[in-house]
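Weekly sync, protein design subgroup
Attendees: M.S., D.O., the rotation student, P.L. (late)

Item 1: inverse folding check
M.S. brought a backbone from last month's batch and wanted to see whether the design step gives back something sensible before we order anything. D.O. pointed out we never logged the input encoding, so this time it goes straight into the notes. Structure tokens as presented (130 positions):
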């Protein structure tokens, strides 16, 4: 073998190694990005939590009915309407805000309180029903 063919062989093997390293590096980056993309698409979103004071809402509604002088038969019929409206409103708020609603006084630091939203929605539902 001549000296020039040795140089060409060394150069071509050096270029070959560089090319292999570059292909390997690019393949690794593509694999890592693909893995991150699949995880982002398939992984569930973090759980969001909010609270509502259902006990307070029920207590205030009972007080309101007592102040209005509603008799027990009407109050019972009203309760059969109001209960399902409460369930429906809670589900709508959970869906709309994308949260799991917990009944306060749950110990959830920093969770938003959506009681006012629930009360407003219930008031509208009750008005529409009457």
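Designed sequence read out in the meeting:
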């Amino acid at each position: 073998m001549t000296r020039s063919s040795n140089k060409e062989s060394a150069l071509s093997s050096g270029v070959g190694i560089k090319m292999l390293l570059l292909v390997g590096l690019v393949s690794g980056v593509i694999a890592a990005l693909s893995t991150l993309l699949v995880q982002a698409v398939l992984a569930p979103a973090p759980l969001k939590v909010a609270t509502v004071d259902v006990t307070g809402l029920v207590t205030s509604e009972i007080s309101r009915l007592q102040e209005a002088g509603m008799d027990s038969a009407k109050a019972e019929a009203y309760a059969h309407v109001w209960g399902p409206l409460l369930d429906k409103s809670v589900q709508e708020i959970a869906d709309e805000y994308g949260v799991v609603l917990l009944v306060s006084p749950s110990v959830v630091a920093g969770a938003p309180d959506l009681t006012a939203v629930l009360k407003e929605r219930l008031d509208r539902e009750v008005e529409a029903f009457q």
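Discussion: The chain has two domains: 1-43, 49-129. The CA atoms of residues 81 and 129 lie 9 Å apart.
Action: P.L. to compare against the previous round before Friday.
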